[in-house]
Prior knowledge:
- Helix content is 59%, strand content 7%.
- By secondary structure, it is mostly helical.
- The chain is elongated.
- The chain starts with 7 loop residues before the first strand and ends with a helix.
Amino acid sequence: MGIAVLAVVVRTSAQVPVVIQPGAPGKPSKELSPSERPKAVASRHTPGDTKFMQGMIGHHAQAVEMVELLKTRTEREDMRLLGLRIEVSQNDEIKMMKGWLEARGEPLPGEHAHHMPGGLMPGMLTEAEMAKLRAAKGAAFDRLFLDAMIRHHGGALIMVEELRSSKGAMQEAEIADFASHVDADQRMEILRMNTMLKGLKK
Length: 202
């Protein structure tokens, strides 16, 4: 019966780690040569995973721009609370997605990439639509905002579905958990915003 390999780094010499494999019962430990050391498991992320994270950063960034308008254009406290929740959660997720990309040596999208031609992900507003939102105030703004954010969230759901259909994607637990979270969170907020919108139209 073979002995399981348990390699432990115990010291460094000239910045080169020394790896020790514990011996079987009653046998001495063994210092492993570089060729004998266990190889690190390669990252299992795919181009589809990377594309999702890069695109979702821009998607979230526009949502943060949209909720910033709530601070000066709505008169409703429930709208401000909705905006605060979206702002906090999406800023936190942007940081997480940037960290995910950096840890895997993948490029980060530019800060204004979503403003560039071809930078709009599903559900995102065009510059003309953003300008119309900026120009509105009061109840008219609230209706425009909710309509736009419902569509924006729906775009995120499309992006999750595209990720799921991408070959080999979502093998890493981190991205699988995040995509599932985005799906559940956006669906819940769409339901909440539809309820708020119906109340405004009465």
